[in-house]
Amino acid sequence: MNIFVRELKANLKSLIIWGVIVILFVMVGTAKFSAYYENPEMLAILDDMPKAMLAAFSLQAFNLTTISGFFGLMFTYYALMLSIAAAMWGSDIISKEERDKTVEFSLTLPVTRGRVVTAKALAALVNCLALLLITWGVSLVSARPYQPDSEFYRFVGLCMAALFIMQMLFLAVGIFLGCAMKQYRRAGSMAVSVLLGTYFLSILPGLSEDLDFVKYFTPFKYFDAGMLLRESRFDVTFVLLSLAIIVVSMAGAYLTYTQRDLYI
Amino acid sequence: MSVIEANHLTKYYGKARGIVDVSFQVDEGEIFGFIGPNGAGKSTTIRLFLSLIYPTGGSATIFGKDCIKYGPQLRQDIGYLPSDVFYYERMKVIDLLKYSASFYARDCTQRMHELADLMELELNRRIEDLSYGNKKKVGIVQGLLHQPKLLFLDEPTAGLDPLMQRKFFQLIQEENARGVTVFFSSHILGEVQRMCSRVGIIKEGRMIEIADIKTLQQNNYKKVLVEAAALDAAHFDIPGVTNLEHTNGSVRFFYKGDVNALMRTISGVTVSNVTIEEPTLEEIFMHYYE
Predict the structure, then answer these.
(1) Which CATH number fits domain B220-289: 3.30.70, 1.10.150, 3.40.630, 2.60.40?
(2) What is the ipTM for the molecules in this complex?
(3) pLDDT in tens, chain B (290 residues)
(4) Do A100 and B86 touch (CB under 8 A)?
(5) A103, A108, A261: residue with CB nearest B75
(6) Would you kindly state where each structural domain of chain B is located, as residue ranges?
(7) Is the Cα torsion angle B255, B261, B263, B266 positive or negative in sign?
(8) Cα radius of gyration rounded to whole Å, chain A
(9) In chain A, which ranges are continuous DSSP H helix?
(10) CB-based contacts of A148: which residues, under 8 Å, 6+ apart?
(11) Are B88 and A10 inside 8 Å of each other by CB?
(12) Which chain A residues touch B99 with a CB distance below 8 Å?
């Protein structure tokens, strides 16, 4: 409990910064949406764009002149931001002890390394949840001027559930890298590199049918906002795949961290 | 009962040597000195005992229990003062100490304040604002507040002013008088000589000598100075004499062997002054490393 509380306090500043980033992003996004809102000319412009380009920016699935459609477009960027935050928190919360050389204090206390990982993982999870709630709240508030219907609220709820799973996935990967990597300085940048790498992979399946299999390797394809909007359901395969990645990453984190030398 | 025990303890960092085949025991209530130059493996040995790192070979036990398997439980009774102290920079001293105290089963509040008073620690400052010496003082309080039965001190006096050093040594001696076992690693031989009864000397990762300081001094050479009006240096060139130096009116040499033979040799001349000294730990140490 003491480690958990200390980590929450230590990470508060970072949470506030991310919260501000998300709020600004949503505000700027909504300001742009006010130009699209119920604007038929916008639709005509989009229809003229090359298909591949629309796919690259995941613009083809949504009607951007409705608030639900616009939110569907924004989903990718939300996913990117929340995942980056989660991956960085995950890797940093473990590796910072070695970076700041505090392991010689924190791990010579009467605690098991497993307990340390658990407490830190939970603290990072709470941070992720808080950032998700901020995202959810500010999304709903900024949508209010556009008279959203009940379908919109359900859609946003589903998107948040999807974002939560993605956060957990990248949090687990981040924690694993923080635990496993001896070059603790690079754990954070490695986590973000993995994340951006999989993000760029996620563009491939939209470009060609032959590249469809790539979707299994990129979490950014696990949750399709278009499907969430039209069918209101998740693809169970990808939920299970996400869970599997989380479980494997966390198991790997505990296993490596309890068995390796701490770098001092 | 031996409190600390190392059995053929070996640690390699990849191919780089940490320590090789180190075996020793430290008994309850002892202050054991652990000396060697930088990079000899002193900190590696301590970190193995604290299971911050894991051995490549051999084993380490504390209070008869394996350091890795029972590490968390053993650390309830271990205090550790590293050579460089690093704490969470943004915390206040008092919060850090309370945080540390929260991990121990016993209530540490009273002892924490006693120690903080003794070390003249300002509890309301942030760690990041403290000088090196003041951080070290936080380390001393943090390492002792849970009244450990075993202390690991890794070059503890670096950064402390002479006044604080004296207080610190007093504190360690008081702890020792209460029965606390101390493992004292240092390259400052004067303080080891003052504090410890037994020392281990480590060189390039290997323990090359473990002995009582007294025996170490007695079994070693003695420093002899003879002053006389008329001297012939050759007169003193008997078996056991080394480093013979003759300056006008005095002869200096090292002697190892039967003291009686030495006395007979000296009595053969009319002397004005004779001193026979035990070597300091420093001189013995240098001898091992040459």
Answers:
(1) 3.30.70
(2) 0.86
(3) 789 999 999 999 989 999 999 999 999 999 999 998 888 899 999 999 999 999 999 999 999 999 999 999 999 999 999 989 999 999 999 999 999 999 999 899 999 999 999 999 999 999 999 999 999 999 999 999 999 999 999 999 888 889 999 999 999 999 999 999 999 998 887 788 888 989 999 988 999 889 888 887 777 778 889 888 877 778 888 888 888 888 888 888 888 888 888 888 888 888 889 998 877 777 777 777 66
(4) yes
(5) A108
(6) 2-217, 220-289
(7) negative
(8) 20
(9) 2-36, 40-48, 51-56, 67-99, 103-106, 113-143, 150-180, 187-201, 204-207, 225-231, 236-259
(10) A67, A68
(11) yes
(12) 2, 6
**Interface list for chain A against chain B, based on CB atoms closer than 8 Å:** 2, 6, 10, 100-105, 107-112, 115, 259-262, 264
Q: In this complex, do B86 and A261 lie within 8 Å of one another by their Cβ atoms? A: no
**Cα A201 to Cα A180: distance, rounded to the nearest angstrom:** 24
Cα–Cα distance measured from residue A77 to residue A69, given in angstroms and rounded to the nearest whole number: 14
Search chain B and give the residue with CA nearest A107. Answer: B52
What CATH number matches the domain at B2-217, 3.10.20.30, 3.40.50.300, 3.30.1330.40, 3.30.230.70?
Answer: 3.40.50.300
Shortest CB distance from B87 goes to which of A102, A261, A262? A102
